[in-house]
Amino acid sequence: MNREDARERLIVGLDVGSRDDAIRIVETLGETVGFYKIGYQLALAGGLPLVGDLSRAGKRVFLDLKLLDISNTVEKGVESALQLGAAMLTIHAYPHAMRAAVKAAEGSPLTLLGVTVMTSLDAADLEASGYRLSVAELVAMRVRQARDIGMGGVVAAAAEAAAIRQAIGPQMAIVTPGIRPAGSPAGDQKRVATPAEALRDGASHLVVARPIVAAADPAAAAVAILDDMATALS
């Protein structure tokens, strides 16, 4: 993998509290990064128009809103995401929600991603939420459902990426958050991996936020991660 290939697969999370902060990060990173994630924090702070702004500037946007509601509401939400110009959109991997999302996105280039089990959760969290499946069992079930329903990919921790890739084949996306360069603190994530580990295990895209956004030199931090990605599969 060369640097340009890695650039297509690195998604920088704009996990900041204002549109101005997000714009500063994008300007700082310049052409080093071509793919950004917008989640709840920025979306609810006036960041949704950035989806269109970034798309028109030649960037791709992963809209990480983890939609889950009645089918009609999910369907209308996906239609709105299409109008914004998002390239990827997350849906909690409940079958009814995924079916509604696939219906709304049919014929479009939008990649729908089913959120399996968030990387901030572990077995104890699942048990406290009433699940009687292990993390691996719940991920496997939701991955099969996402594949059968026609989703474009899934969001999962790197620890599950190898098994998921074996189950879904080479075509579907596996987007992996919780990425931390070697030696970086895990923060509030419980199932983390380095960029090289995640790619070797089958991830197609890596989401990196704090290790880049909070770095003293975000551009240098992004370049270091891209270099790690480029060498991982070379």
By CATH, the superfamily comes out as: Aldolase class I
Please name the CATH architecture: Alpha-Beta Barrel
The level-1 CATH class:
Alpha Beta
Order of SSEs, N→C?
HEHEHHEHEHEHHEHEHEHH
Q: Give the overall silhouette.
A: globular
Distance between the termini: 5 Å
Which regions have little confidence, pLDDT < 50, spanning 5+ residues?
none
Q: How large is the radius of gyration? A: 17 Å
The average pLDDT score comes to 90
Count the domains. Answer: 1
- Largest beta sheet: strand ordering: 1-2-3-4-5-6-7-8
Keywords, separated by commas or semicolons:
single chain; 234 residues; alpha/beta; TIM Barrel; eight-stranded parallel β-barrel; 8 strands; 16% strand; globular; orotidine-5'-phosphate decarboxylase activity; pyrimidine biosynthesis
Describe it.
With 234 residues, the chain is of the alpha/beta class. It has a single domain (3-232), classed as Alpha-Beta Barrel (TIM Barrel). It has helices spanning 3-9, 19-29, 40-47, 49-56, 71-84, 95-105, 123-128, 135-149, 158-168, 195-200, 210-213, 218-232, and strands at 10-13, 35-39, 60-67, 88-92, 111-115, 153-155, 173-176, 205-208. Helix 10 links the parallel strand 7 (173-176) and strand 8. The mean pLDDT is 90.
SSE layout and pairing:
Elements: H1 3-9, E1 10-13, H2 19-29, E2 35-39, H3 40-47, H4 49-56, E3 60-67, H5 71-84, E4 88-92, H6 95-105, E5 111-115, H7 123-128, H8 135-149, E6 153-155, H9 158-168, E7 173-176, H10 195-200, E8 205-208, H11 210-213, H12 218-232
Parallel strand pairs: 1-2, 1-8, 2-3, 3-4, 4-5, 5-6, 6-7, 7-8
